[in-house]
Amino acid sequence: MFARWPRFVHCLVLPAGLLLASGWGLGTYFETSDDLAIIQLVRGITAAVPVSNLHFYFHGLAAVLAVLCQQWPAVPWYATLLFVLLYGATALAFAVIDKLLRGRVPAWQITLLLLLFYSTLWLEHAMWFHFGRVAVLLAGSGLLFAAQRPTQRWAQTLGLSAFGLAWLIWPGAADVALLAVLPGLWWLTGRRAAPLIVAAIAWAVVAGLALHLLRPASSQAYRQLHQQATALNDYRLYRLAPASATDSLGLRLAASGMLGDSTLVNEALFRRAAHFEPTYFGQHVAPAKLQATVFGLIREYFPALLVLATLAAWVLAHADMRGRPGFWLALLAWAGLLLGLGTLLRLPPHLALPLLDLLVLSAVVFVLRDEMESERRAVRALLLVLGIAALPYTVKTLRRHQQLRAEQHRGLQQLRQMRRHTYPAAVVVTDVLDEAYKSQSPWGRPRLGEGVGFLSVTGWYTADPSQAQLRRYLTGTTDMVPALRQLARRRAAVKWYLTPATARLLNQQLARDGQSGQQPWQLVARERTGAGSSTVPRLYFPTDKPVE
Question: pTM to 2 decimals?
Fold first, then answer.
């Protein structure tokens, strides 16, 4: 009926142009320190050798990244891999929308819809970088793409490959994406989607079982400790009941992300001093988390909610759609998924918006899957709603861009300060790296000095088996406190650049050695600063002499 532009314009050229334009205009910034921690490990910056097994993420891919970083260290392989996959996810999502509307509405309206969809619902993924976004979007978009083409074997292979690759990056994210798009898969092709769904579930089950069976004992212990620390810090599931001063210290270390001392932070600690009490959680923690989730979704992602509300209103206004209970059951299930994640676990930005995008795509599928006389009015309604949301969302995006640029500048200043204070030490003990790199560009290479070894004492990976190997490489022992004591004896060869809170916790760990008859050490700041600078990192020096 309408003139058609070549399919590759919408499905390949437009996604590439939008990603490049947003990256050039707004930049790209780490959302959290997770990506930086992974880059440091696979590059061997915070490990004795490049790490090829990350235990939770990038199964199989970490080994490839480690080899590439060794062979061509100047290339930002991590960012390149994830942005190529983000482009793939964007192209798949655009292809789903294009196929729904091709030949049914004018080509310029499809283009405008894709532009507004990207500007209000997708732009954040390119600007605020996190591997979790890529995993969710790639898994969900791949499955929708395959379900839309049930008779084309290449499309089934491509969609399942996208899901499998996303699962390797982050299994949990891919599994949640599968749950989110199940209604959309069914609405696209009905029972013909069953083989695709079964294949995706089979992959998740078989691959998950294989990982569990092949996981070594050290990896299993690390996984268990990581899950307990996450339940404490991120999910706030535990009610704390320390039975001794040792338990209290262990819990403070765990709350600060200092998981390396297995004598203090271990599974036994959580069994003794941290308990999940459903009544307490339901009365004191869950209501606040639920409220924060609801207000956070409304404040941060109102365009997606506005589109979903518009589509729901459209279904209500049409009797032939209104009587189909599947749509309303899906809405309830989606609400339960989002609110359940936010209340029982956590719903950070790198999960919230990708999931909302998949929900929007699935709801658009329901409304536009059938031929109808009012389809052009439905598209115009979506264009109007997205156009209205675009202005305030643009203002919000520009404000976030300014905040991220400011955080990036502060982080660079911290890194320069650390380099100036610690040069030319061969080893630096620090807790600064993760915070300083939080909003840095994924395309930038870490500028930390050549030949410097970093022992990071905070972060989710401090209990990683690679960190014990690093301590053995640096000191000859894997135990945290004896390793710190050995580093303290090396004087000028080792620099300690820490925030005061971390230094106090390290001093409490070292003081326990004094109680057990070992030579006591403590960290003392070289420069005295005002009380208002309690979070500013500074240089410390170890001493075994009494300090007044």
Answer: 0.95
